[in-house]
Amino acid sequence: MRDVPAGYRHFHDELAVLKQRLLDMSERAESLVALSVEALLERDRDKAIAVIEADEELDRLEVEAENQAIAMLALQQPMARDLRFLIGAIKVSSDLERVGDHAVNIAQCAVRLVDQRTAVPTVPALADMARRARAMLSDALDAFIRGDGALGRAVGKADDDVDAQHESIFRALLADMMGDPQTIAPSLELLLVSRNLERVADLATNIGEDAVYLAEGKQIRHRYDEDAPTPSSNDAT
User: Fold this and answer.
1) How far apart are CA 206 and CA 222, in angstroms?
2) Contact by Cβ (8 Å): 23, 17
3) Which of 77, 91, 201, 204 is the Cys-Cys partner for 137 at CB 3.0 to 4.6 Å?
4) What is d(CA 63, CA 14) in angstroms, rounded to the nearest whole number?
5) pLDDT tens digit string along 1-11?
6) Confidence of residue 55 (pLDDT cuts 50, 70, 90)
7) DSSP state of 169
């Protein structure tokens, strides 16, 4: 059995570190979304403030992941699948940081609802919408790390359900506002929450599309290359 070159081992050790950093970012982003929705449903200002303050850590992790990926691109000059992974990792870290920003937006809505001290319409679908968006995010990262194109595509299909929930919530809250003007202010906050959860699902979809590109070398964002032939097996590995 031939010895593995030291440079090759070092590159794949660095790749493993980068993958773990992305997984840590995803776990942190998911937890912030969960905590922000808890703060909203429980009208818990302390939890909302905790989300807002924790976003700085996600910002730091994004910078670290991006710097590491850029350094590996410059120093190692990888080819084919490794090259696609590093390019994708830069995009994925940015998407995960933006998930944290949406969690902060939800937390800020929770703070404003606490401060308003008015009755808030009940929207049970928000909790389920948040659960679906977080599941999509988890699946998307799993698909990207493992290079699983089928799972990446499944994430995109799941986004349709979240979009439908957002539309349903919009219609329900619009009816509330038309029926009782006093619900306008809190309803608008809940609409913002729903919109931010929809954006989390959209970002998960982006990551799922990056997983497809990693696995198959095909760009399916905007349906750009959905019908194009898959590259040869030599390029896909």
Assistant:
1) 10
2) no
3) 204
4) 16
5) 344 455 557 88
6) very high
7) H
**DSSP structure string for 28-71:** HHHHHHHHHHHHHHHT-HHHHHHHHHHHHHHHHHHHHHHHHHHH
How do residues 181-210 score in pLDDT, each as one tens digit?
888 999 999 999 999 999 999 999 999 999
Q: Which long-range contacts (CB under 8 A, 24 or more apart) does 81-90 make?
A: 81/147, 81/214, 81/236, 81/237, 82/11, 82/15, 84/213, 84/214, 84/217, 85/15, 85/147, 85/214, 86/18, 88/144, 88/210, 88/211, 88/213, 88/214, 89/18, 89/22, 89/65, 90/65, 90/66
Q: What is the pLDDT of residue 124?
A: 87
Q: H helices of 147-183, where? A: 149-179
Determine how many CB atoms are found less than 10 A away from the CB of residue 51: 26
d(CA 174, CA 87) in angstroms, rounded, equals 42
Q: Is there a contact between 155 and 204 (Cβ–Cβ < 8 Å)? A: yes
Distances in whole angstroms, Cα of residue 57 to Cα of each of 24, 28, 44, 64, 90 = 11, 9, 22, 11, 17
Is the separation of the CB atoms in 34 and 130 below 8 Å? Answer: yes
Provide the pLDDT for residue 236: 42
Tokens read off for 68:
């590491």
